Every structure is written in structure tokens, then in C-alpha cells.
Amino acid sequence: MEERLAWCLKIKTGIKLTLPSEEEFNSYFSAAKTDLENLIKGKVLARWEPVVAYYSAYYSIYAFLRLLGIKSENHFCSILCFRYVLRVINEDEKMIEVIDRLKRRREEAQYYLKTVKIDVNELKKFIDHLENIKNKVILNREAIRRKIKELIEIVNREEA
């Protein structure tokens, strides 16, 4: 993962440190929960369910990145960075498999017009779990940012 994370720190649309933003956390997490509720209530056309489910999961993790003051315009890098955050705070990285599965299903539905079923309950558990670790993330915010800064310094030294 370190090599891929290093790549994400080098590219223009990859991982950047910014100011932490509770406001952006609230906006992204609210959007994730609204999308989840729309899926639960059946307010999404079946062919768009995988797309909405993926973005619900993506917005939920991106909310945490913004809470930490991490910005990324690359989905691969955002997901990888969040996996790294989970590792730093000793949370189970396996939960990322949920968003990985949703990403594959979204691609199948969106790019290949396949009929794809999603597990809304799995998505709900994913988002609920994230909501439950918010305080842990906040408590570890400076340690996480320090680790990211260290990785940036290593990447910068290697390029010099």
C-alpha cells in the first residue's frame, strides 16, 4: 500500500493536506446518509442504485478525509488514504471491501449496462460503523496528519 500511497501523494489530483473542515464533513456525510435513505425507501431507479450506493459510501469516507484536512480528487487515492487512516487508528481495514465491491458494481452498471443488485443493509452497516468511529478519528486527527506529513516528506526526499 505504501508504494500506491506514495503515487497518490505525487499526482496533481491525489492526496493533499488542507485545513480540517467539520462543515465539509457534515455536508458530505449528510449527502451519504440522504442517498442511503433514498435507497432504503426505493426512491432510486433500479439501474441507478449501484451508482447511488457507491457514491453514498464514497461520500461517507470522503467526509472523514475532509474532517482530517485531507483532500483528494482521485477516488482510488481517497479510498486508499482512508484505508491508511483506518490502519493508523487500529480499525479493521476489511470494511473498505464494502466500498471496493460497490465501486465494481457501479462500474458494471454504469459502463457495461449490467443489471446489478446491491446490498443496502451492508451499505447501512458501513455508514453506521463510520458514524460510530467519528470520535476516534477526531481524537487521532493530529497523529493521522503527522503520519501523512511524514509520508509526504519521504516522497519529497525520494524525488529530490
Globally, the shape reads: globular
SSE-based structural type:
mainly alpha
Q: How far is the N terminus from the C terminus? A: 22 Å
Task: Tell me the radius of gyration.
Answer: 16 Å
Number of helices: 8
> What name does CATH use for the topology?
Four Helix Bundle (Hemerythrin (Met), subunit A)
Specify the biggest β-sheet: 2 strands, antiparallel
**E-strand count:** 2
How much strand content do the residues show? under 5%
Helix content: over 70%
**CATH homology-level superfamily:** Nucleotidyltransferases  domain 2
- The CATH class: Mainly Alpha
CATH architecture: Up-down Bundle
Query: Secondary-structure element order, as H and E?
Result: HEHHEHHHHH
How many domains would you count in the coordinates?
A: 1
Give the helix/strand layout:
Blueprint: H1 2-10, E1 16-17, H2 22-40, H3 49-68, E2 70-71, H4 75-88, H5 96-112, H6 120-132, H7 134-139, H8 141-159
Helix pairs in contact: 2-3, 2-6, 3-4, 3-5, 3-6
